[in-house]
Amino acid sequence: MKQIKRAAPVEQAVSEPEISAYQRALRDRLLAAPVVLAPAPWRPVFEYAYGVPVGGLLGIGFASHPESGHDLVMAVSHDGHGLFDAVTGQKIARDRDPDSEDSTPDAAADLTCPGLGPIAGSRVHIAGFFGGGLHTTTGDGWTLEAVTPAWPNDRVLLSTDGGLPHSGPLGEQWWHIFHSTYSELRAFGFSPSGETIAVATSSDVSLWTRHPEHSNDSIAQR
After folding, report:
1. pTM of the predicted protein model
2. What percent of the chain has pLDDT over 90?
């Protein structure tokens, strides 16, 4: 009599557990939080609500100006490299056609690209599409985090209460400062000095500064 092989039992898919009432309440609170201005001493560097447009942006990195000491933000995109003064918002250097071996950070083991303008001769760590990261805390207690209560739109939160779950009211110890509703979040974080906040998406860069010499009168135009 011919033997019939029995098929192995099909494993049942394990369903995800339902979120708890606590998780649901936290998600609802994040969804309900509108975008607000960052608190003093933080001020926006660019006048445009979503910073400065950078088409095809891949990532950003920080450096320091060798003369002024200002934080600098290097933006790497499909259209080349750009360097911004994070206090004035000025674009101080541009390379539209970088060498192919240095055009994107994934060509280097440490995710760096060559500096330009006043930081030529150095290399800048770039965080974004290819990986890497920026500082998410400062020495004096500020914290940045990205949350996604409604995927795929990321929200960037600034806080002084140590991060989630943010039990206090919005605007007291935590602030929803950026909502990426139209582009992919590439990177967010503080400069090593703790004087600059940067948020980069696939289409723009937004900056905030608390540099003492910066005033609202010098906010860069779009």
Report:
1. 0.88
2. 81
